[in-house]
Task: structure prediction
Amino acid sequence: MTLAPTPASYVESLFSLEGKLAVVTGASRGIGLAIVESLASAGADIIAVSAGMPPGDGPARTAVESLGRAFTPMSADLSDRSRVAELAAELATRPVDILVNNAGMIRRTPASEHSDEDFDHVLGVNLRATFTLSREIGRGMLERRSGKIVNTASMLSFQGGINVPGYTASKSAVAGLTKALANEWADRGVNVNAVAPGYVATANTHDLRLDAERSDAILARIPAARWAEPSDIAGAVLFLCSRAADYVHGAVLPVDGGWLAR
Ligand code: NAP
Result:
């Protein structure tokens, strides 16, 4: 006879990441750091990647080790194609269960002044590295018929934005890439989804928040009447990394305080 699960064990069975190994890019700060905290709290060991990820002490290591989980830092400039290839080859040798492609950057200049260098740089970090890491780590997941990949989209996966043509191009493409991978991998045990954060108070939006006019206009348009905190995004990522999302494929999940509903 099977006993009905207690509410606690039901929730635990859906959301526990005990024994899982998660790679999180852009894990040094902002949304990535909150994701690391969330996944480690659910039981995952963490490989934390960022451009300047400290090999020694840092907030990500402190968060993970204080939760009793294993922490491995890796430093890589994801705009550098050959470094991404090296990183991907190294990660492909490990039994990665979860990949969160969170690292990203933005260059703010009007389209008429947006240089090819800026455009390529933004696309390199936000899109190309996401694809290369997904392909190389995803291959092992396909062999094991198990894995979760969460990409990082944006409101600018749905809208055009202002003064950020490279960023908008990259994030619109991340949404498309997420669906493309999901279509190929959904019946092979691998879930590919994306989270689309609204306006989050991090370094990424520092300049925007300094522009009082833009900042007030944005706030006035958010039904929740506040900017997001990184932890607002991390909970949705935990969901997409968990067994609770086993039947979720190719979704681009807005976590935006209702922005897109307006
Ligand atoms: P953030 O605070 O600026 O942090 C960016 C992270 O990405 C850092 O860990 C940084 O590493 C890493 N990174 C940047 N360039 C890199 C490179 N070339 N190579 C390797 N790592 C690099 O940004 P955030 O706001 O948390 O954003 C995280 C993700 O959410 C990004 O994809 C962003 O586009 C997306 N997003 C943010 C918002 C928002 O409102 N903040 C909204 C929608 C989407 P280092 O610290 O080592 O430099």
In short: The chain is about 45% helix and 15% strand. The domain at 17-254 is CATH 3.40.50.720 (Rossmann fold).
